[in-house]
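Cross-check.
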Amino acid sequence: MATNAYVEHAPGYVDNVGPKVVTSRFGDPESYKLERSEATGGYGALRAVLQMKPDEVHGQVRDAVLLGRGGAGFPAGVKWGFMPPVWPRYLVVNGDESEPGTYKDRLLMERDPHQLIEGCLITCYALGLNTCFLYVRGEMALAQERIAEALNDAYEAGYVGRNIMGTDVSIDVVLTWGAGAYIVGEETALIESLEGNRGMPRLKPPFFPAAKGLYMKPTIVNNVETLANLPWIMLNGPEAYKQFGSEKSPGTRMLAISGHVKRPGVYEVEQGKVTFRDLFYGDNYCQGIRDDNDLKMFIPGGGSAPWFFEDQLDLPLEAADVGAAGSMLGSGAIVVMDETTDAVRACLRVVRFFARESCGKCTPCREGTTWEEKILQRILDGHGRPEDIDLLLDIGSQISPGPYPVAAFEAAGETAVPFPPKQTTICPLGPSSVAPITSAIRRFRDEFEAKIQAPEEVPA
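Predicted model, tokenized:
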């Protein structure tokens, strides 16, 4: 357990009450070192796995119903089964954590890189792979340094490389990093970047990575937190793992809470057993909204997720329930906004990010996100026009088709924006810019209208 002093010197992680599957070492300031990892069971799971048959390892991951933690929430064991019997084939680890509000994977890479490396090795053994590429976001300098040091130590100790731990199994782990582009968080764009190309998404089909991925060979792309769960599962078994969480979403997951709460940070919580209300107001978690203000809205799954409001506070942290309510848990980032928040400015802040991170490959995204930003900025600058609100919704419908005009939506008896969104683009970046617009206008249209009818004084 982390001491209070350690938490104070390590902002970002909060040691809350509850099971620790992937954050058990976070309380140790030297948790990133090989000797500390070994002293607390590190590489014990790999040793046990090497005594098993690869199919048995794959079966245990499938039985544990380990859901992906990168956004889609697809079961890892099922995803692994999509690879055809073609060699060579590869594992790519997506450490390009770039969703607005998300920083949990960065902590995993900085605090416990050996746990991640062990998870990579277990995956490679289960799938018969001999090469893993670990791709880290360009701005995460400390994570890169920690993983590089951990890999050097693991190679020297015989955990990685030729004939690992005295067996006939040989696995190499290659560390690489990007240049900070948001789009390479999308798996096919990440693969393009790994191949030395500009990070742009590929069409799916035919380029589903499991069939045609890195170098056009079968490739599994898994998220950092997903793989960090594997050592615990292999040491304790799938049934022990399923004792945590809910039936539909077993285990724990890390959540990065930022914004207007009294105690922001990263928490490891049981899936499906904690609600948003518990998380925001519970003594073990965020302890309430700052200055005891009222909650206005929150983004439940990173900047690309449709917004939620007080009506959704009692939803459990369960992907199926959140999805049915019109949003997603996504990348595990929750951004909380209190009653003092200007909904139009908050909307612009998110839209501007996506407009500037668009790779430009798809016309609706390249052009549409730019126009969304310009119109929102025009409204905030005091030059908005009454038709701008519906124009924003119309542009959004060209990027992500849906009944976005409020009258049409309510006439259909709908209570939430359609999710997952339809898209006219190759990847979800374009639709991600539409989510804050539709969320803000449907709930706070009066704020948009007020800025148009009584423009704010623009600072000199």
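The longest strand covers residues 252-259. The two ends are 51 Å apart (CA to CA). Passed to J.P. for a second look.
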